[in-house]
C-alpha cells in the first residue's frame, strides 16, 4: 500500500504554510472560501480567526475544523479589527511551527488558485509576496467606479508620502515568511483596519525585505457587507500622513547633515 502524499513537502522553504482568514459575520462565505482554498493548494492549512461573530460564523468554523484536519480555528472574545486578527494569527502560526502565513479575505474576493504563485515567490527568495491588483496581469472585477478610484488614489497618496515602489500597498492577499516578521516590531503595531496592510508594507521596506508583487484578479465579495467604513479610511489617511511627514523630515535632516559634512 502506498503512503499518502505529505501535504507539507519538506523541499519547500515555505512549508509548512497556513492561510489566515479573519472573519466577522461571514457565515454566507466562509464554507465556500475554505473549500476552495483546500482544493486550490494542497500545501496549506487554514486558520479561521473569528471575532465572536453574532451570525454564527464561529460555530460554522468549528464544524469545518471538525470535518477537515487541515482547518483550525482561533476564537477571539470580541471584534478588535483586521490588524489585531492578523497579529493573533501570526503568533498562533509561530507557536504551531509554521514557516509561512498567508493573509486571505473570507469573502471570496481572493482566488485560492493564486496561492501556489504567492508561495512560489517566497520559495524564490522573497520575504513578502503581495497579490497585486495594480501591476500588469492584475485586475479588479465588479467594483463600483468610486471604490476603484478611492483605492487607486489611496495607493498614489501612500506611495508619494512614503516613497514606496510597491504598486498595491493596501493589498490584503499576501504571504510572509514568519522568520522575518519579528524584525518588523509587531508589538508596536496599532493599526486597526486596512491601514494594517500599509503599516506592514512600510515596515517591510524599512527593514530591507525583498518584496515581490504577484498579479491577481480581485473580485468583489460574493455575499455580506463590506467592512470598509469612514473610520477605517480616516485611520489610514491620518497614519500615512504622519508617517510620511516624519519620513520626509528625516530625509531633510540627513541631507542637511551630509551638506554640512561635505561643506
From TrEMBL:
| Statement: the UniProt record of this protein carries the keyword Transferase | yes
Which keywords does this Swiss-Prot/TrEMBL entry list? Glycosyltransferase, Transferase
Q: Which Pfam families match?
A: Glycos_transf_2
CDD domains with a match to the protein in the record: DPM1_like
The answer, when asked if Glycosyltransferase is one of the entry's keywords, is yes
Pinpoint the Glycosyltransferase 2-like domain residues: 19-183
* Family matches, as InterPro entries: DPM1-like, Glyco_trans_2-like, Nucleotide-diphossugar_trans
Please report which protein family the annotation says this sequence is part of: Belongs to the glycosyltransferase 2 family.
What protein does this entry describe?
Answer: Polyprenol monophosphomannose synthase
Which species is the source of this protein? Answer: Glycomyces rhizosphaerae
Amino acid at each position: 500500500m502506498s503512503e499518502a502524499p505529505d501535504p507539507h513537502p519538506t523541499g519547500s522553504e515555505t512549508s509548512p504554510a497556513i492561510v489566515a482568514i479573519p472573519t466577522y459575520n461571514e457565515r454566507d462565505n466562509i464554507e465556500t472560501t475554505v473549500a476552495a482554498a483546500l482544493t486550490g493548494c494542497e500545501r496549506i492549512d487554514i486558520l479561521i480567526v473569528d471575532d465572536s461573530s453574532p451570525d454564527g460564523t464561529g460555530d460554522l468554523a468549528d464544524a469545518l475544523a471538525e470535518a477537515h484536519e487541515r482547518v483550525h480555528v482561533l476564537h477571539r472574545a470580541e471584534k478588535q479589527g483586521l490588524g489585531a486578527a492578523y497579529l493573533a494569527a501570526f503568533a498562533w502560526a509561530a507557536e504551531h511551527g509554521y514557516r509561512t502565513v498567508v493573509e486571505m479575505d473570507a469573502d471570496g474576493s481572493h482566488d485560492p488558485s493564486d496561492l501556489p504563485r504567492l508561495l512560489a515567490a517566497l520559495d524564490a527568495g522573497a520575504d513578502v509576496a503581495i497579490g497585486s491588483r495594480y501591476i500588469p496581469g492584475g485586475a479588479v472585477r465588479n467594483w463600483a467606479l468610486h471604490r476603484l478610484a478611492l483605492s487607486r488614489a489611496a495607493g498614489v497618496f501612500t506611495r508619494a508620502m512614503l516613497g514606496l515602489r510597491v504598486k498595491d500597498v493596501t493589498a490584503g492577499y499576501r504571504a510572509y515568511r514568519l522568520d522575518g516578521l519579528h524584525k518588523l516590531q509587531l508589538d508596536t503595531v496599532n493599526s486597526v483596519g486596512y491601514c494594517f496592510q500599509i503599516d506592514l508594507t512600510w515596515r517591510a521596506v524599512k527593514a530591507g525585505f525583498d518584496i515581490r508583487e504577484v498579479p491577481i484578479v480581485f473580485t468583489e465579495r460574493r455575499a455580506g457587507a463590506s467592512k470598509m467604513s469612514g473610520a477605517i479610511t480616516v485611520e489610514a489617511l491620518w497614519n500615512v500622513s504622519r508617517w510620511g511627514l516624519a519620513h520626509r523630515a528625516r530625509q531633510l535632516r540627513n541631507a542637511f547633515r551630509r551638506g554640512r559634512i561635505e561643506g
